C-alpha cells in the first residue's frame, strides 16, 4: 500500500495503472481514518494483485480533495482507467469492503 507523499500528476498515476486504483482520502487528525489503516492493509493483502491502494492526505492535497468533492473522511474512491467509478464514505469492515470491491473490480 502506497502513501503518496508527492507526485507529478495524479491523473497520470491513475491512468497509468493497469489495475483499478483505490484512493484513500484521509487526514492525520482524523480518528476514523486511522481506524482504516489496518482495514486497508487487510484489503490490500486479499486483493493486491487486482487492486492498487494509494493514500492521499487531504491536508496536503487540498486541490484534489476539492476536485473529487471529499467532504467526509475517510472517503475511498475507486478509479478505473483514470475515472472514478465508486465512492465509499466512512469506516467499513475489511470483509465487507473486500466483498463490495470484488463486485466492482
TrEMBL record:
<keyword id="KW-1015">Disulfide bond</keyword>
<dbReference type="GO" id="GO:0005737">
    <property type="term" value="C:cytoplasm"/>
</dbReference>
<feature type="active site" description="Nucleophile">
    <location>
        <position position="30"/>
    </location>
</feature>
<feature type="site" description="Contributes to redox potential value">
    <location>
        <position position="32"/>
    </location>
</feature>
<keyword id="KW-0676">Redox-active center</keyword>
<dbReference type="Pfam" id="PF00085">
    <property type="entry name" value="Thioredoxin"/>
</dbReference>
<feature type="active site" description="Nucleophile">
    <location>
        <position position="33"/>
    </location>
</feature>
<keyword id="KW-0249">Electron transport</keyword>
<dbReference type="InterPro" id="IPR017937">
    <property type="entry name" value="Thioredoxin_CS"/>
</dbReference>
<feature type="domain" description="Thioredoxin">
    <location>
        <begin position="1"/>
        <end position="105"/>
    </location>
</feature>
<protein>
    <recommendedName>
        <fullName>Thioredoxin</fullName>
    </recommendedName>
</protein>
<feature type="site" description="Deprotonates C-terminal active site Cys">
    <location>
        <position position="24"/>
    </location>
</feature>
<feature type="disulfide bond" description="Redox-active">
    <location>
        <begin position="30"/>
        <end position="33"/>
    </location>
</feature>
<dbReference type="InterPro" id="IPR036249">
    <property type="entry name" value="Thioredoxin-like_sf"/>
</dbReference>
<dbReference type="InterPro" id="IPR013766">
    <property type="entry name" value="Thioredoxin_domain"/>
</dbReference>
<comment type="similarity">
    <text>Belongs to the thioredoxin family.</text>
</comment>
<keyword id="KW-0813">Transport</keyword>
<dbReference type="InterPro" id="IPR005746">
    <property type="entry name" value="Thioredoxin"/>
</dbReference>
<dbReference type="GO" id="GO:0015035">
    <property type="term" value="F:protein-disulfide reductase activity"/>
</dbReference>
<feature type="site" description="Contributes to redox potential value">
    <location>
        <position position="31"/>
    </location>
</feature>
Amino acid at each position: 500500500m502506497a502513501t503518496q507523499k508527492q507526485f507529478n500528476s495524479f491523473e497520470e498515476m491513475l491512468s497509468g495503472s493497469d489495475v483499478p486504483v483505490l484512493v484513500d482520502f484521509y487526514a492525520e487528525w482524523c480518528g476514523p481514518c486511522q481506524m482504516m489503516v489496518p482495514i486497508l492493509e487487510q484489503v490490500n493483502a486479499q486483493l493486491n494483485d487486482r487492486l492498487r491502494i494509494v493514500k492521499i492526505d487531504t491536508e496536503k492535497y487540498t486541490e484534489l480533495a476539492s476536485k473529487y468533492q471529499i467532504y467526509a473522511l475517510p472517503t475511498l474512491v475507486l478509479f478505473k482507467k483514470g475515472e472514478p467509478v465508486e465512492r465509499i464514505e466512512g469506516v467499513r469492515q475489511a470483509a465487507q469492503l473486500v466483498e463490495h470491491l470484488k463486485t466492482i473490480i
